[in-house]
Amino acid sequence: MKEYVIALIDCDSFFVSCERAINNHLNHQPICVVTGENGCVVSRSKEAKIMGVKMGMPLFMAKKIFPAVVYKNAQHEIYKSFSNKVMHNLQQILPNLEIVSIDEAYADMTSLDKVYKMPYPLLAKWIRKKIWQNTSIPISIGLAPSKLLAKLASDKAKSTEGVFQIKISEIQQILKSTDITEISGIGRSYTKKMTYNGIFTAWDFVCQPDQIIKKQMGIMGLDLKYELLGYYMRHLETHQTIPQSIQDTSVLPCFTSDINVLKSQLYYHLHQACRRMRKNGCLCTIAGIMLRTKDFTIFSDKLKLPCVSDCELEIAQSLIPLLNKIYQPNILYRSSGVILSELVSKQNYQQDLFNQSKIKNSSLSQAWDLLEDKFGKNILKKGWI
Ligand SMILES: [Mg+2]
After folding, report:
1. 56 by DSSP, 3-state: which?
2. Residue 235's CB: how many other CB atoms inside 10 A?
3. 81 CA distance to ligand 1 centroid (A)?
4. How much distance in Å is there from the Cα of 140 to the middle of ligand 1?
5. Rounded to the nearest whole angstrom, what is the distance from the C-alpha of residue 324 to the centroid of ligand 1?
6. Which domains, ranges and CATH numbers included, belong to the chain?
7. What is the Å distance from ligand 1's center to 101 Cα?
8. pLDDT tens readout for residues 212-245
9. How far is the CA of 30 from the centre of ligand 1 (A)?
10. Distance 295 CA to ligand 1 centre (A)
11. How sure is the predictor about 339, in pLDDT bands with cuts at 50, 70 and 90?
């Protein structure tokens, strides 16, 4: 059997780490990032975890019990740009990378020990150092023959030196010391059922006959069993998949009925959503807007575009009349957003080679993206008419 080396690269306390990367004074302080309209803890530093702050804890409660902790409001745009930077740096080193979330990616590192002339754990340590130097974001790396074991290894890496490898010869011993609740993918109801049947460790789970696992959990259960035994069942998806829809929404700076404020927000959201669409190499068929009132009622509408597009200048021509249609001057609004859906891959789409204004608009958007990549957001603003 070919021994694969799969890595799970996970940014440590990602939102907190981004806050620290911006503001060094926060290093070594207990800090939490909160988000949502009522404010819940979504990221905790090691110090805050030790003090006992729980994930999802409401801000008012956390503040009362842990007044010494620094609480920061989430800045998602900033976290997104840190994530892009980390993933871009990883892609330079690891050609087969599957980005799974804002702070996690799998990589197939098989044979890279020969390319970089380093044993895998040393290579992982070198990558960690490189990412830290280039982005100021700490990462943990779990190495194993399968994705599921790599995930387990990355959890263990958090409490070791940031790198942890599970070799084929060590699987049995590791599984024996791993509680069934530590395995991601086994839901709570299965865990309950298993412990009832005397299955407490991951090793107990894999020792069950295939038919029993299949009967209880279906084919996914078998997949889980063999991943745990070190078989590379879940292959990396390194090609970019097209998202189902892209939306960009935010709370307005203050409650407003001003149509000009709503228009300028719409242009802003449209640009952000189109930028993401271009990064994903897709075009949208349907564009829609959403307005949420002061008392949380939502008004929304969407339309089919005259032609598929990834260009804010074109899509705005359809969305502004839509905004005028759902806007009511006597209502106070609290948030707004843009939703682009029925996305298609740009690669598979026949470009209109003779439409000069389309070509002009498209090159303008690309130049806009390049400038923002280089000099940051808000370097350019359209003087909308
Ligand atoms: Mg993480």
Report:
1. coil
2. 12
3. 16
4. 8
5. 42
6. 15-75 (3.40.1170.60), 179-239 (1.10.150), 245-375 (3.30.1490.100)
7. 9
8. 998 888 888 899 999 999 998 888 877 666 788 9
9. 17
10. 35
11. very high
Distance 139 CA to ligand 1 centre (A): 8
DSSP one-letter string for 296-328: S-EEEEEEEEEEEE--HHHHHHHHHHHHHHH--
176 strand-pairing partners: none
Closest to 124 in 3D by CA, of 14, 238, 3, 9: 9
Sign of CA dihedral 266, 268, 274, 280: negative
Question: Distance from the CA of 338 to the center of ligand 1, in angstroms?
Answer: 28
Enumerate residues with CB within 5 Å of ligand 1 (an ion): 10-11, 14, 103
**Residue 64 Cα to ligand 1 middle (Å):** 26
The distance from CA 128 to its chain's CA centroid, rounded to whole angstroms, is 19
Distance CA 282, CA 286 (A): 12
Q: Which of 240, 239, 230 is nearest to 147 (CA)?
A: 230
Phi, psi torsion values for 239, nearest 5 degrees: -75, 150
Give the pLDDT of residue 182: 86
Amino acid, single-letter form, for residue 224:
L
Q: Report how far ligand 1's centroid is from the alpha carbon of 268 (Å).
A: 29
At 345, the pLDDT band (50, 70, 90 cuts) reads confident
Q: How far is the CA of 17 from the centre of ligand 1 (A)?
A: 10
pLDDT tens-digit series, residues 21-71: 999 999 999 999 998 767 889 999 999 999 999 998 999 999 999 999 999
- Residue scoring higher pLDDT (21 or 193): 21
Phi, psi dihedral angles at 288 (to 5 degrees):
-145, 165
